[in-house]
């Protein structure tokens, strides 16, 4: 007779840990969202975007909007944390894009405006197209695969940085706190997806977690190596 109560307790425990992982992921994501602020302080101070690219913010906005739509009740259930994190993320990216457009040259201004319109058009087509699918399961698969592909491509971008670190044996272009935040964010939503039994969440975040571990391992290895080389003193000093 106690079996149903045990099942409910087990499910309640899973739900609690899912919420804990989701809240942690939202907190770690906030660290990532504010990481471009030093760049934009420089842009505002110099009133120029200099050689900075606005493409990462365009792509991040697209990713946030697709994942936001996937987390909505129209597509999936019990994914409130995905809605909150991607709503905040989309707001930050849109603000960065607006600031970038305001301070860049005329050529880049038009380019960024066109790309921004393309993002809204693509997301609009995804939303309208998915709502035309009457079967909820098919709709879930359609948007789920799109959000998964978007996240995997985003997490794959550090592969270029990893290659650069190995080639140059330097961690100059791989900030530690950015790598740590990415790892913690991916790890949190990996657990969130597992507790929610959502493969479209835990699969890309599992890949992100592995890449985060690789980045942190490389940072520790090459950072330690550079310190050892800097502090190494010759055993015999020649004055000849």
TrEMBL record:
Membrane spanning residue stretches: 20-40, 52-71, 83-101, 113-134, 140-164, 176-195, 201-222
Membrane topology label: Multi-pass membrane protein
Subcellular localization, as worded in the UniProt entry: Cell membrane; Endomembrane system
Origin superkingdom: Eukaryota
Keywords from the named record: Membrane, Repeat, Sugar transport, Transmembrane, Transmembrane helix, Transport
Signal peptide span: none
Function as written in the Swiss-Prot or TrEMBL entry: Mediates both low-affinity uptake and efflux of sugar across the membrane.
Homology family: Belongs to the SWEET sugar transporter family.
Protein name in UniProt: Bidirectional sugar transporter SWEET
């Amino acid at each position: 007779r106690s079996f149903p109560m045990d099942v409910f307790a087990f499910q309640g425990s899973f739900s609690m840990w899912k919420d804990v992982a989701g809240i942690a992921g939202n907190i770690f994501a906030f660290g990532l969202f504010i990481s471009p602020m030093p760049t934009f302080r420089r842009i505002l101070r110099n009133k120029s975007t200099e050689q900075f690219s606005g493409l990462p913010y365009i792509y991040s906005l697209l990713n946030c909007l697709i994942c936001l739509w996937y987390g909505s009740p129209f597509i999936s259930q019990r994914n409130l944390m995905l809605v909150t994190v991607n709503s905040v993320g989309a707001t930050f990216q849109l603000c960065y894009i607006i600031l970038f457009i305001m301070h860049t040259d005329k050529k880049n201004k038009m380019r960024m405006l066109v790309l921004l319109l393309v993002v809204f058009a693509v997301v609009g087509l995804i939303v309208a197209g998915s709502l035309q699918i009457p079967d909820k399961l098919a709709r879930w698969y359609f948007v789920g695969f799109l959000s998964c592909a978007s996240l995997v491509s985003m997490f794959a971008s550090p592969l270029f940085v990893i290659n650069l670190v190995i080639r140059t044996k330097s961690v100059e272009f791989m900030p530690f706190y950015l790598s740590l935040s990415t790892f913690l964010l991916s790890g949190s939503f990996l657990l969130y997806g597992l507790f929610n039994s959502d493969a479209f969440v835990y699969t890309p975040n599992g890949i992100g977690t592995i890449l985060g571990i690789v980045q942190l391992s490389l940072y520790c290895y090459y950072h330690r190596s550079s310190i050892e080389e800097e502090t190494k003193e010759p055993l015999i000093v020649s004055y000849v």
